[in-house]
Design brief:
This protein is of the alpha/beta class. Helix content is 41%, strand content 14%. The strands form 2 sheets. The protein has a 5-stranded mixed beta sheet with strand order 2-1-3-7-4, with helices on both faces. It has a two-stranded antiparallel sheet with strand order 5-6.
C-alpha cells in the first residue's frame, strides 16, 4: 500500500525520475576509460599484428608495410577515423600483454570468435564468416567499449554497403 500512495504523489515521483535521469546523464556510455577512440581520432591508432596469412602478413623487413585481409580492414577503419596506424608486430602473447598494459588499441592476427584470448582482450562482432563456419574477429582492450562499438559499427557499415571482407 505504501508504494501505491508514494506513486500517487506526482511531484515526488517526478523528482525521483528527474534525479535518476540526471544521474544517468553523468556517465558516458559507452565508456572508454583509457580514451582509445578519442586518441585515435586525434591522430594515432596503435595496432598489434601477428603473422597469420591470409589475414595478416608482416613481411620480412621493417621497410615493407603489413598486408592481408585484416590489415586492409583496419586501414579502412583508420582512414574513417582520420588516424595514422602505428603497426606493432609480435607474438599473440606479447601483443595481448601490451593490449592489457594500454600500449595497443587493437590486435589483429586471424583470430576467430572462439579464441582462447577472450579473457585478455574483448572480441569484436564477427566481420566475416568462413566457409567452415568460423567467424573472424579482432581484439580490443577490455573496457574500451567506445572503441569496440565504433569498430563494430564500421564492420556493419561495410556489411550493409556490400564491401564485407572476403
Amino acid at each position: 500500500m505504501a508504494l501505491v500512495r508514494w506513486w500517487n504523489r506526482p511531484v515526488l515521483a517526478a523528482g525521483v525520475l528527474l534525479c535518476a535521469g540526471a544521474a544517468a546523464g553523468c556517465s558516458s556510455i559507452p565508456a572508454d576509460p583509457e580514451g582509445s577512440l578519442e586518441a585515435a581520432r586525434e591522430g594515432e591508432l596503435h595496432i598489434g599484428i601477428t603473422e597469420h596469412p591470409p589475414w595478416t602478413e608482416i613481411g620480412d623487413s621493417t621497410a615493407s608495410a603489413p598486408g592481408g585481409t585484416e590489415v586492409d580492414l583496419l586501414n579502412g577503419y583508420a582512414e574513417r577515423l582520420g588516424a595514422e596506424i602505428i603497426w606493432v608486430p609480435g607474438s599473440e602473447s606479447e601483443l595481448l600483454g601490451q593490449l592489457a598494459e594500454h600500449e595497443l588499441d587493437v590486435v589483429i592476427g586471424g583470430f576467430d570468435s572462439n579464441t582462447h584470448w577472450q579473457k585478455e582482450g574483448a572480441i569484436t562482432r564477427p566481420y566475416r564468416k568462413d566457409p567452415d563456419g568460423s567467424q573472424r574477429v579482432v581484439l580490443v582492450e577490455q573496457g574500451e567499449n567506445a572503441l569496440l562499438m565504433d569498430l563494430e559499427s564500421y564492420f556493419i557499415e561495410l556489411e550493409h554497403s556490400g564491401q564485407e571482407q572476403q
